[in-house]
Amino acid sequence: MSHLTRAQKIFLFFLACVAGVAILGTVYVYVKSNAENEALRTFYPDETTIDQYKGLKGETVTITDSLGEEVTVVTLWASWSPYSRDELPLIDRLSQEFTDDVSFIALNRKESKEQANRFLATMPNYEHIKFVIDSADTYYGAVGGYAMPETIVYNRKGEVSSHIRVVLTEEILREAIKAAQDE
Known about the structure:
This protein has two domains: about 1-40; about 50-180, Glutaredoxin, CATH 3.40.30.10. By secondary structure, the protein is of the alpha/beta class. The protein has helices at about 5-40, 80-95, 115-120, 140, 170-180, and strands spanning about 50-55, 60, 70-75, 100-110, 130-135, 150-155, 160-165. The chain has a seven-stranded mixed sheet.
Protein backbone atom coordinates (compact mmCIF):
# COMPACT_ATOMS: atom_id res chain seq x y z
CA MET A 1 0.00 0.00 0.00
CA SER A 2 2.99 2.28 0.08
CA HIS A 3 2.53 3.07 -3.62
CA LEU A 4 -0.88 4.73 -2.89
CA THR A 5 -1.11 8.47 -2.55
CA ARG A 6 -2.32 10.07 0.65
CA ALA A 7 -5.67 10.94 -1.01
CA GLN A 8 -6.13 7.34 -2.13
CA LYS A 9 -5.41 6.07 1.40
CA ILE A 10 -7.94 8.54 2.85
CA PHE A 11 -10.51 7.46 0.26
CA LEU A 12 -9.97 3.76 1.06
CA PHE A 13 -10.26 4.48 4.78
CA PHE A 14 -13.53 6.34 4.12
CA LEU A 15 -14.87 3.40 2.06
CA ALA A 16 -13.95 0.96 4.84
CA CYS A 17 -15.79 3.12 7.39
CA VAL A 18 -18.90 3.34 5.20
CA ALA A 19 -18.86 -0.42 4.66
CA GLY A 20 -18.50 -1.01 8.39
CA VAL A 21 -21.41 1.27 9.22
CA ALA A 22 -23.54 -0.41 6.54
CA ILE A 23 -22.77 -3.86 7.95
CA LEU A 24 -23.49 -2.78 11.52
CA GLY A 25 -26.75 -1.12 10.42
CA THR A 26 -27.87 -4.24 8.59
CA VAL A 27 -27.11 -6.42 11.60
CA TYR A 28 -28.97 -4.00 13.89
CA VAL A 29 -32.08 -3.94 11.68
CA TYR A 30 -32.04 -7.74 11.36
CA VAL A 31 -31.71 -8.31 15.10
CA LYS A 32 -34.30 -5.65 15.95
CA SER A 33 -36.88 -6.95 13.46
CA ASN A 34 -36.43 -10.54 14.67
CA ALA A 35 -36.88 -9.43 18.28
CA GLU A 36 -40.02 -7.47 17.33
CA ASN A 37 -41.42 -10.42 15.40
CA GLU A 38 -40.91 -12.76 18.34
CA ALA A 39 -42.48 -10.26 20.72
CA LEU A 40 -45.47 -9.90 18.41
CA ARG A 41 -46.06 -13.56 17.60
CA THR A 42 -48.99 -13.67 20.00
CA PHE A 43 -51.31 -10.75 20.51
CA TYR A 44 -52.13 -10.26 24.19
CA PRO A 45 -53.16 -6.65 24.78
CA ASP A 46 -53.40 -5.19 28.23
CA GLU A 47 -54.84 -1.94 29.48
CA THR A 48 -51.72 0.00 28.44
CA THR A 49 -51.59 -1.22 24.86
CA ILE A 50 -54.29 -2.08 22.37
CA ASP A 51 -57.68 -3.66 22.31
CA GLN A 52 -60.76 -1.45 22.19
CA TYR A 53 -61.48 1.32 19.73
CA LYS A 54 -64.43 3.37 18.59
CA GLY A 55 -65.95 2.57 15.26
CA LEU A 56 -67.00 5.35 12.94
CA LYS A 57 -70.63 4.80 13.96
CA GLY A 58 -69.76 5.15 17.66
CA GLU A 59 -69.74 1.42 18.40
CA THR A 60 -66.99 -0.23 20.43
CA VAL A 61 -64.77 -2.49 18.31
CA THR A 62 -62.59 -4.95 20.18
CA ILE A 63 -59.84 -6.39 18.01
CA THR A 64 -59.44 -9.43 20.23
CA ASP A 65 -63.09 -10.41 19.65
CA SER A 66 -62.19 -12.03 16.36
CA LEU A 67 -58.74 -13.26 17.37
CA GLY A 68 -58.69 -16.93 18.18
CA GLU A 69 -61.88 -17.49 16.16
CA GLU A 70 -61.09 -16.39 12.64
CA VAL A 71 -58.28 -14.96 10.58
CA THR A 72 -58.12 -11.21 11.23
CA VAL A 73 -56.63 -8.62 8.90
CA VAL A 74 -55.81 -5.25 10.47
CA THR A 75 -54.72 -2.58 8.05
CA LEU A 76 -53.51 0.83 9.15
CA TRP A 77 -54.78 3.78 7.16
CA ALA A 78 -54.95 7.56 7.25
CA SER A 79 -56.32 10.27 5.01
CA TRP A 80 -52.79 11.68 4.62
CA SER A 81 -51.40 8.37 3.33
CA PRO A 82 -51.58 8.15 -0.47
CA TYR A 83 -51.57 4.36 -0.19
CA SER A 84 -54.86 4.26 1.69
CA ARG A 85 -56.80 5.44 -1.36
CA ASP A 86 -55.52 2.39 -3.28
CA GLU A 87 -55.45 -0.18 -0.49
CA LEU A 88 -58.95 0.23 0.92
CA PRO A 89 -60.67 -0.83 -2.35
CA LEU A 90 -58.26 -3.77 -2.62
CA ILE A 91 -59.06 -4.85 0.95
CA ASP A 92 -62.77 -4.49 0.22
CA ARG A 93 -62.49 -6.78 -2.82
CA LEU A 94 -60.72 -9.42 -0.72
CA SER A 95 -63.25 -9.00 2.10
CA GLN A 96 -65.91 -10.05 -0.40
CA GLU A 97 -63.79 -13.02 -1.49
CA PHE A 98 -63.07 -14.23 2.06
CA THR A 99 -66.52 -13.75 3.61
CA ASP A 100 -66.77 -16.78 5.87
CA ASP A 101 -63.80 -16.88 8.20
CA VAL A 102 -61.83 -13.65 7.81
CA SER A 103 -62.45 -10.39 9.64
CA PHE A 104 -61.20 -7.12 8.13
CA ILE A 105 -60.44 -4.10 10.33
CA ALA A 106 -59.22 -0.78 8.96
CA LEU A 107 -57.64 1.12 11.84
CA ASN A 108 -57.22 4.84 11.31
CA ARG A 109 -54.04 6.40 12.67
CA LYS A 110 -54.26 9.55 14.79
CA GLU A 111 -57.16 11.26 13.06
CA SER A 112 -60.47 12.46 14.38
CA LYS A 113 -63.68 10.68 13.49
CA GLU A 114 -64.71 13.73 11.47
CA GLN A 115 -61.48 13.77 9.46
CA ALA A 116 -61.71 10.04 8.77
CA ASN A 117 -65.34 10.37 7.69
CA ARG A 118 -64.49 13.25 5.34
CA PHE A 119 -61.91 11.06 3.63
CA LEU A 120 -64.19 8.02 3.47
CA ALA A 121 -66.98 10.17 1.97
CA THR A 122 -64.79 10.39 -1.15
CA MET A 123 -64.60 6.58 -1.37
CA PRO A 124 -67.22 3.90 -2.13
CA ASN A 125 -69.12 2.33 0.77
CA TYR A 126 -67.11 -0.59 2.17
CA GLU A 127 -69.65 -2.79 3.93
CA HIS A 128 -67.37 -5.71 4.86
CA ILE A 129 -64.64 -3.70 6.59
CA LYS A 130 -64.86 -2.50 10.20
CA PHE A 131 -63.52 1.06 10.30
CA VAL A 132 -62.15 2.18 13.66
CA ILE A 133 -60.28 5.18 15.01
CA ASP A 134 -57.06 4.99 17.02
CA SER A 135 -56.63 8.64 17.90
CA ALA A 136 -53.76 7.87 20.29
CA ASP A 137 -51.97 5.71 17.69
CA THR A 138 -51.40 2.99 20.29
CA TYR A 139 -51.83 0.01 17.96
CA TYR A 140 -49.19 1.30 15.54
CA GLY A 141 -46.70 1.65 18.39
CA ALA A 142 -47.62 -1.69 19.94
CA VAL A 143 -47.02 -3.63 16.72
CA GLY A 144 -43.68 -1.94 16.09
CA GLY A 145 -44.95 0.20 13.24
CA TYR A 146 -42.39 2.30 11.44
CA ALA A 147 -43.78 2.94 7.99
CA MET A 148 -46.98 3.31 6.08
CA PRO A 149 -48.63 1.24 4.85
CA GLU A 150 -48.69 -1.60 7.36
CA THR A 151 -51.04 -4.57 7.49
CA ILE A 152 -51.02 -7.30 10.13
CA VAL A 153 -52.65 -10.70 9.51
CA TYR A 154 -53.49 -12.85 12.55
CA ASN A 155 -54.17 -16.57 12.29
CA ARG A 156 -57.06 -18.34 14.05
CA LYS A 157 -54.91 -18.82 17.14
CA GLY A 158 -54.53 -15.04 17.52
CA GLU A 159 -50.87 -15.12 16.49
CA VAL A 160 -49.28 -12.73 14.04
CA SER A 161 -49.02 -14.68 10.82
CA SER A 162 -47.80 -11.82 8.60
CA HIS A 163 -46.72 -8.25 9.21
CA ILE A 164 -46.76 -6.64 5.79
CA ARG A 165 -44.76 -3.43 5.47
CA VAL A 166 -45.05 -2.82 1.75
CA VAL A 167 -47.68 -1.42 -0.55
CA LEU A 168 -50.32 -4.13 -0.76
CA THR A 169 -51.30 -5.98 -3.85
CA GLU A 170 -54.16 -8.45 -4.01
CA GLU A 171 -51.64 -11.26 -4.47
CA ILE A 172 -49.61 -10.32 -1.39
CA LEU A 173 -52.64 -10.03 0.88
CA ARG A 174 -54.40 -13.09 -0.57
CA GLU A 175 -51.28 -15.22 0.05
CA ALA A 176 -50.94 -13.86 3.60
CA ILE A 177 -54.59 -14.68 4.34
CA LYS A 178 -54.27 -18.20 2.90
CA ALA A 179 -51.09 -18.78 4.90
CA ALA A 180 -52.87 -17.67 8.09
CA GLN A 181 -55.81 -19.97 7.30
CA ASP A 182 -53.38 -22.90 6.92
CA GLU A 183 -51.64 -22.32 10.26
